Amino acid sequence: MLFATVFVGAAGMKLVASEFETMNFARFGYAPWFMYLVGLAQMLGAILLWVRGYVAYGALLLPVLSVLAVLLAGGAVSHLRVGDPAMLAAPALGLMALLCGIAVAHRHELPSP
Predict the structure, then answer these.
(1) Which residues, 6+ apart, have CB-to-CB distance to 28 below 8 Å?
(2) Residue (of 18, 64, 30, 20) closest to 44 by Cα position
(3) How far apart are CA 55 and CA 49, in angstroms?
């Protein structure tokens, strides 16, 4: 799934501490260890998006609303908090909306309450 590949790439940039990600996390005021935690969470979510029967969990890691969606929302808020133009937050918000759609489309994979 192409969508999961986007997250693998984003996670990889964090896990190898690319200059771009390192500078952004520092600019947002986050500790370096947080970049690796976010990268690991993104990688886990992306892997689950590839596994049949676990797609909903990748998009909606229970009981948390969605690890990837929460990370995306946090990224958007971080951009806005440091005064970046709203357009820099738009990709994260768009991906978050797509994740919510994937979770709804695969809700049959989740256990019944």
Answers:
(1) 78, 81, 82
(2) 64
(3) 4
How far apart CA 91 and CA 80 sit, in angstroms, is: 13
Residue from 4, 10, 14, 81 nearest 45 by CA: 4
Q: Which residues contact 5 (CB under 8 A, 6 or more apart)?
A: 46
User: Is this prediction's pTM over 0.85?
Assistant: no
Question: Is the pLDDT at 51 greater than 90, yes or no?
Answer: no
